[in-house]
Amino acid sequence: MKRVATIALLVVVAVSGCGKSKSSSSADKSSAATTTTAGPKLAKADFIAKADPICARVTSETNAVPEPKSATELEPALKKIVAIVEPGLAELRALNAEPADLAVFKEHFLDPNQAQLDAAKKLLADLPSANGDEAKIEALAEKWQNETSDLDDATEGHDAALKAYGFVGCAKTNE
What we know:
The protein has one domain (2-14, 47-171). The protein has 175 residues and is mainly α. The chain is 69% helix and 0% strand.
């Protein structure tokens, strides 16, 4: 049971954290670069002032999701996390930042988090094949953990880059 809780916690933390990856697919990168707000670009300070509260809110909401106590509790917890993170990323993408600011944010925040979100969605899609069998759910979670370990390894570097750029809430969402 302890092993299941540890894996479940890793899955939940990885999806709810920010700044998790050093790479993502080109489809992720093009969708993450899209902004939907027309009009003047936000100055760096304004962009940070708008992004940080969104990051802090998403972090707070994901941290409030109870840790799964068993493998069968993983799917509902992960669904809650995805339902919080996905619209948060959409809000952040909608901010109309200057290209240089967006490039930094995209590299160290949007792309890594989109990669984690995509991986979590893939895990959610695979979980029904386990038919509620805790051993099979645990195996799927372990496979997911192995497949996303490089994403997790880059976390500290992304957080440091975001902090150095001036972000606060978006640079410490892994806490």
